[in-house]
């Protein structure tokens, strides 16, 4: 039986939600998407700089530094190696930034700075084995082809990040060349993109230019200045790097500030965590005074993706209601009432809320 607010397909085609166009930063319309794999046209776009220009060098991947045999892999070579396909959620570290109180500077993302799908590529550990890591290797640095100027910095910067050896050698950390069965779209990293499951997406470097193995801690702008939690407004005390995705959830339907008729309504949404699978989602329709466990979609459960959930709500009384969702993961992490404020606005993961009116 269909519920009053349930349809099998969106009534209209949604659009990306624009935050900025130079550089391009746009959100996925998650409230209206029905499938686990985000279509490329709806995949969120996060950029610090203008899109890079591809050259012939873009189809070669050098690995240098603390290795015994520096290598340069061609795109065709990478296609010939044993591949791995992983379904992975990528979430911008600034997702839901607009919800922080007090407000913080940066792209004012709603909940749509995340998308997911099937990524196919070569496990990074295989490429590092070809090159042969020296015992002095400490971190792996990934530099992208995207570059530009940053406020307050006089020289141009390339986007670059590093991974610790342990994460780089995880079998599901891959150098991807396909998304949902086709070449990665240009705006999402073609021809080669790093995919790092369970970490916020700043780690999944697009348009990879080179990989360098180093024997020290990387100090790049996007490693030690940006993508760092600063819990204090006026000092750097207590700062720590942004890494694993917090347990989180969002309510897709009903939409915030909807007006609904009395009757049965399906509340649905998604939940996710970088620490493990979602094991429970609880929903409140009375502003948190009582909670009811939602039904999880078993087919969408995975440690690397969101889990879809639903619950039926018998709305018998007229008035205004606050619906809330609270996720729990397999490591026991539970969404908090409030997310820890930090001055760059990363990692927001407080209990989700929408307000509706029943008439």
The total of beta strands comes to 23
The helical percent reads under 10%
From the alpha-carbon coordinates, what is the Rg to the nearest angstrom?
A: 21 Å
Which band does the percent of strand residues land in? 35-45%
Provide the CATH topology of the largest domain: Sulfite Oxidase, Chain A, domain 2
Give the SSE string: EEEEHEEHEEHEEEEHEEEEEEEEEEE
Identify the CATH homologous superfamily of the largest domain.
Oxidoreductase, molybdopterin-binding domain
Number of domains: 2
Which parts are unreliable, with pLDDT below 50 for 5 consecutive residues or more?
1-10
Rounded mean pLDDT score: 95
What does it look like?
- Its cofactor is Mo-molybdopterin.
- InterPro entries: Ig_E-set, MoCF_OxRdtse_dimer, Mopterin_OxRdtase_euk, OxRdtase_Mopterin-bd_dom, OxRdtase_Mopterin-bd_sf.
- Residues 48-221 form the Oxidoreductase molybdopterin-binding domain.
- This protein has 359 residues and is mainly beta.
- The protein folds into two domains: 17-241, Alpha-Beta Complex (Sulfite Oxidase, Chain A, domain 2); 248-358, Immunoglobulin-like.
- 6% of the residues lie in helices and 37% in strands.
- It has four helices and 23 strands.
- The chain has helices at residues 75-80, 124-131, 165-168, 221-225; strands at 17-21, 24-27, 60-65, 71-74, 84-91, 114-123, 139-148, 157-164, 174-179, 182-183, 193-195, 208-214, 228-229, 240-241, 248-253, 258-260, 263-272, 278-284, 292-293, 295-296, 307-315, 319-329, 352-358.
- It has a five-stranded mixed sheet. Strands 5, 6, 9, 10 and 11 form a five-stranded antiparallel sheet that branches. The chain has a five-stranded mixed sheet with strand order 16-23-22-18-19, with no helix packed on it.
- Strand 1 and strand 2 (24-27) form a beta hairpin.
- It is globular.
- Residues 1-10 have low confidence and may be disordered.
